[in-house]
Amino acid sequence: MKQLTLLSVTTALFAPATTFSAQPKESPRPNIIIILADDLGYGDVSAYGAQTLSTPNIDRLANGGIRFTRGYATSSTSTPSRYALMTGEYPWRNPRARILAGDAPLIISETQPTLPKMMQQAGYRTGAIGKWHLGMGNGQVDWNGPISPDVNSVGFDYSCVIAATQDRVPTVYIENGRVVGLEDSDPLYVNYHTNFEGEPTGADNPELLKMMWSHGHAQSIHNGISRIGYQKGGTKARWQDETMADYFVEKVSEFLDSDSTQPFFLYYGLHQPHVPRTPNPRFVGTSGMGPRGDAIVEADWCVGQLLRKLEEKGVMDNTLIFFSSDNGPVIDDGYQDQAVELLGDHTPAGSLRGGKYSLFEGGTRIPLITYWKGHISPQVSDAMVCQMDIFQSLASLLGIKRTTGPDSQDMLAEFLGQSNRGRHELIIESIRRLAYREDDWVLIPPYKGNLRNESGNETGNMKEFGLYHLTTDLGQQQNLAQKYPEKLEQMKTRFKQLAGEYYESVEMKLK
């Protein structure tokens, strides 16, 4: 198939080891938006079969673009999958790409090739708004001054983010490397090991809580919600959880209005439906499923506000949109919010087994949609694609030759609906445990550890190798390892070739 390319960009050098080059093109460059939800499952979107939730704005993208049935995150947890999206590299290659604390240092090197750097060098204005969770600073962050390195250090011209997750301190917005609204007279301090004297916690002061924790969220209290980690000060800078969606919607609108002379690249990290689920009061009760369902309805509204803004500006026809989630769903993830009790007939992972933290399909197979009005024909695609492939695919779209980042593959034809071939193989990861996907086969090695985690999700830890054929057994109920020993050995051999030394490392040690 003939490669699709657009307009010229010049040769760019980020660092001596990072080279991008391009050939002259004729067509105008499209704006690019990546919308990444947080813990949204394959079955949480009505276009993907949800019968108990309505997501009309996400459905608009799915029904007007390409709805991938085999779209993957690289990982079943947040930080690693976001790392792969930004760098085009498997997260298990970077030992720091794990679930990060809110004060963790930036895990992307400032000299490393990144998707936003590539877009900058192609002449794009770049922005990151919403959830970050890839670290910032060097491990000794002074939250009361400029934070460096920060989000902008990896290729964003503008950023307004939360450092980690909504359930982790610091509970403040950070705009272009500075805490928003911080007063000199009330400095902010953060510690993930020791509490500050006199500061209440969820464990010691449950009477101060409006949302009770269930596990792992019993430390500093802010807005009646206890979090992971300890903080002190910065009182007027702290966010109001219930208005977070509105805050970021406004920041997105401001970014889109700021400069019309360049095409833009926007990374929009939704915070829903990650815990604590705190939808704006106008969404409370709209789903009939409690805070988790209401948060999904709110996330869908956020998507709708973005689409409305693009239409108002008259740029919808020239904007390529990717919509996805960072990993699979989780129900009880640390707060008593009745997510389990009110679930009813809803199945957040659809017909998939597992969810967040799992090596089963529900951990990494997620909603993945591409939409470009007038350029992509509405369709459903069974091509296996990964968020990590957006990097190389956009390089191809812009005629850029990338010489680094071998894990990202060019899936441009698939993302534009002109091919259904997709990937042949993919390694997926969950908390430093790997599994191997080859066409419709999945190999899960036996790992030490519990069969379920404290959130109730299956981990994928088994007593023997698991071999599943997804065409005939999407729910992964039939282990075919003993029935097809030759296929098992073939996949084990290839898996070891791809994972290299990591496969034999202590962290990868099998039962």
Give a description of the structure:
- By secondary structure, this protein is of the alpha+beta class.
- The chain has two domains: 26-188 and 233-415, 3-Layer(aba) Sandwich (Alkaline Phosphatase, subunit A), CATH 3.40.720.10; 425-508, Arylsulfatase, C-terminal domain.
- 20% of the residues lie in helices and 19% in strands.
- It contains ten helices and 21 strands.
- The protein has helices at residues 56-64, 78-87, 115-121, 244-258, 290-313, 361-364, 390-397, 412-415, 485-499, 501-504, and strands at 12-15, 18-22, 31-37, 66-72, 125-131, 158-162, 173-175, 178-179, 189-191, 221-222, 225-226, 230-232, 264-269, 319-325, 368-371, 379-386, 400-402, 425-430, 433-438, 441-444, 466-469.
- The strands form five sheets. It has a ten-stranded mixed β-sheet, with helices on both faces.
- β19 and β20 form a beta hairpin.
- The longest helix has 24 residues, at 290-313.
- The chain is globular.
- The model is unreliable at 1-19 and 21-27 (pLDDT under 50).
